Predict the structure.
Amino acid sequence: MPAKNNDLHGSAPETCPVALLMIDVINDLDFEGGDRLLQNALPMAHKLAELARRARSAGIPVIYVNDNFGKWRSDFRMQLEHSRADGVRGKPIADLLVPDKNDYFVLKPKHSGFFATTLDTLLEYLGAKTVILTGIATDLCVLFTASDAHMRDLFLVVPEDCCASETVEEHNQALGLMKRKFDADTTDSTSLDLNQLLRNMTDT
């Protein structure tokens, strides 16, 4: 039996034990409750932009895990272009969180970033043992992705200031659930030592 292919057909990503997942941040917010979500998500996006910058500097891969919003013929670049168009509610967030050329992206059809996507395969090739989950909404897509990551025995970090819900109550309830049931580290992003996290994962 041939050895497992370790080079992803000549396009192997850099290996890293930690990956930053940015969930549904490229989003037009064109739905009921979108205005309320924007109020909480925009301050979050400023924090997340800085965390993403630090992650890239530390060599941590950044993965955009984005809903396809039922647009099965679109791709991530089309989603980005649409979300940054004038008059789109989610434009301020998309403008803050424009992907870098070396970032990865995964389109998902449902709440969890793992359901019917290539995220499992990508994380396996990256060698990721820990995922930093960020984005919107804390009580929906972040929570569902956290549940699936926990079932895959991945370590979870969910910085409390880098995800958002329509209400503070929903945000805090989801964070508390992830901390209690999934053993998630909810340290805020400004206190999160990425280099120490990398060292911890390398030693395990």
